[in-house]
Amino acid sequence: MSPELSQLVELQELDLEIQRIADKLASIPAEREQAEATFSQYAAEFLALKSQHEQSLENRTRLESELVETQAHHEKFKQDLMRVSNEREYVTALREIDATKKHASALETEILRRMEEAEELAAQLKTFAPDIDAKRAEVDEALATLDQERDREEDLVRSLEGRRAGIAAAISETLLSMYERVAKARRGIVLSEVRDGICSACRMRVRPKIFSDVRKGDQLITCDSCSRILFYRPNTTQSAEAVTT
Ligand SMILES: [Zn+2]
User: How close is the Cα of 166 to the center of ligand 1, in Å?
Assistant: First the structure.
C-alpha cells in the first residue's frame, strides 16, 4: 500500500473512532437526566406518603376538637332536660341529647380509624427513609461513574485528535480536502476495503482489472458505484471492521 493510501486509511480509522466517542459523549447528559429522574420519582413516593401522614394527623386533631365540642353540647342538653317547662322543650332536649350522643360516637370511631391510619403510615415512612438515603447514594454513584467516563473519553478524544493532526499534516492539501469533502457526503466513510472482490461500503463487486490494481495499492482508485477510495489489506481481521461501521 502506498504511504499516501495508508495515511488515508489511518485518518479514516481515527475519524471513525473520534466520531464513535463523540456520539457516546453526546449521550451522557441524557443518561444523567435519567438517573436524576429515577430518583425524583422514587422521592416523590416518599414525599407523598409523608404528606398523607401529616394530613391524617391534622384530620385527627380536627375530629378531636369536634368531639370535645359535641360532648359539651351533649352535657348542655342534658342540663336543659332538667329545666324544661313544657312538652316541646322536653322533646327538643331529648332529640338533641340523642343526636349529640350518636355524633360523638361516630367521631370516636373516626378518630380510632385515623389513629390506626397514622400508625400505619408512620411505619411505612420509617422503612422508606433509609431507602431514600440509599437511593440517593446510588444515584450519586451512577452520576460519578458517568463523569469519570466522560473525562476518560474526553482525554481519549484529545489524544486521538493529536494523532489525527499529525497524520493530516503529512497528507497533501488537495488530497486532504478531497477526503474531507467525501467524508461529509459519505458519513465519514471515504475509503472502503475490498474484500473477496467486493467493495465493503456499497457491497458492489469490483471489476477484476480494478481489483488487481487495488491489490497493488500504488495508486488511488475509486469504486465505480460509490466513488469511495478502494484499498486492500491481505488477511485483514478487526481493523477492517472500522471501515464498514
Ligand atoms: Zn463502493
Answer: 28
